[in-house]
Specification:
By secondary structure, the chain is an all-alpha fold. It has one domain. The chain is about 75% helix and about 0% strand. It has helices at about 1-30, 35-55, 70-75, 80-95, 100-105, 105-110, 120-150, 160-190, 190-210, 210-225, 230-235, 240-245, 275-305. The radius of gyration is 22 Å and the shape is globular. Keywords: Membrane, Transmembrane, Transmembrane helix. GO terms for molecular function: ABC-type transporter activity. This is ABC-2 type transporter.
């Protein structure tokens, strides 16, 4: 009997995994064939290509204090601000309507009449969203690297590949923060328009005007007798952690908090990865944990909500 129970448990896990992969595949396919998402992604990749091309033409290889021998790292260093500002929009576009559209179309009802459980649905959706973001980031790397290699015919070292791979991983987790927020809002809000407005507002406040807002707030608090510096207040923004890890700055939003660290982020070849990690390990931990917390919160909220019509 024990063997039968173990076999049945194993079969259930296998079915659950197949269901998750099925939902993930559906989510991936729905997004990569969505005209609005394709337009947004094409615009983002065009921006990346344009800045990559200009970096080569205008020879900005030493702009970020990197070794002259590692031009590829320098070009990627020149793209950090553009990626930091615009990659959250990819996460938002993927997440803001993910539950709402299924609820409105009634497809959740159909799925739940089959042997597909709630946890399979939300886990599959989150996996599918992660896959799409990873695909977009890979496209970013291919376009940037391809532009440089094709125009200059340079050779790429293992060190450069390693650092760019780490840069890509942290960019993925950074984008997942906004995807997690978007999915969470999509779970509790019933109108796609409202969900989009909330997410865009969060993006504007945390990516574009965070620095200027925190500088103003710090000044007002100081006048009120509360000593809180803008460099401390900026810690509420995901861009803060991404900026430190990738660029070695406290903030790269508009009129951002001007704190520069000795190491210019993950792409600075003048320092070892061990030195980079020792300097930014708290920020690395934060950017890895925050999206996991948000995605888990989305998972729990989805499980508790009345998601059917």
């Amino acid at each position: 009997m024990g063997n039968d129970m173990n076999s049945e448990s194993g079969d259930n896990k296998g079915i659950g995994l197949r269901n998750i992969l099925f939902v993930a595949q559906k989510e991936f396919a729905d997004n990569v064939t969505n005209s609005m998402f394709l337009l947004l992604t094409a615009t983002y990749l065009l921006i990346i290509f344009t800045f990559s091309y200009r970096s080569v033409i205008l020879d900005t290889s030493l702009k970020y204090g990197l070794y002259e021998d590692f031009i590829l790292l320098s070009v990627f260093g020149g793209l950090i601000e553009q990626v930091g500002w615009f990659i959250p929009l990819i996460g938002i576009a993927l997440g803001f309507n993910t539950v709402i559209k299924e609820r409105k179309s009634g497809s959740l009802n159909v799925l739940l009449t089959h042997p597909v459980f709630r946890d399979n649905i939300i886990a599959g959706k989150l996996l599918g969203i992660t896959g799409v973001i990873a695909f977009v980031i890979m496209s970013t790397v291919v376009i940037s690297s391809g532009t440089l290699i094709a125009m200059l015919g340079i050779q790429v070292s293992l060190m450069e590949i390693t650092r760019i791979a780490l840069f890509s991983v942290f960019t993925l987790f950074y984008a997942l923060i906004y995807a997690g927020i978007a999915v969470l809002i999509s779970t509790v809000v019933y109108e796609a328009t409202n969900s989009l407005i909330y997410n865009v507002a969060i993006w504007i406040l945390t990516c574009i005007f965070t620095g200027s807002i925190m500088e103003t707030l710090s000044d007002l608090l100081t006048k009120a007798g509360i000593d809180l510096k803008a460099s401390e207040l900026i810690m509420i923004s995901p861009l803060h952690y991404y900026s430190k890890i990738t660029q070695g700055t406290a903030d790269m939003s508009f009129l951002g908090v001007g704190v520069q660290y000795e190491i210019d982020g993950i792409l600075d070849a003048q320092f070892t990865l061990a030195q980079w990690f020792n300097t930014f390990w708290t920020d690395i931990t934060a950017i890895l944990i925050i999206p996991i917390i948000l995605l888990f919160a989305s998972f729990i909220m989805f499980m508790r909500q009345d998601i059917t019509l």
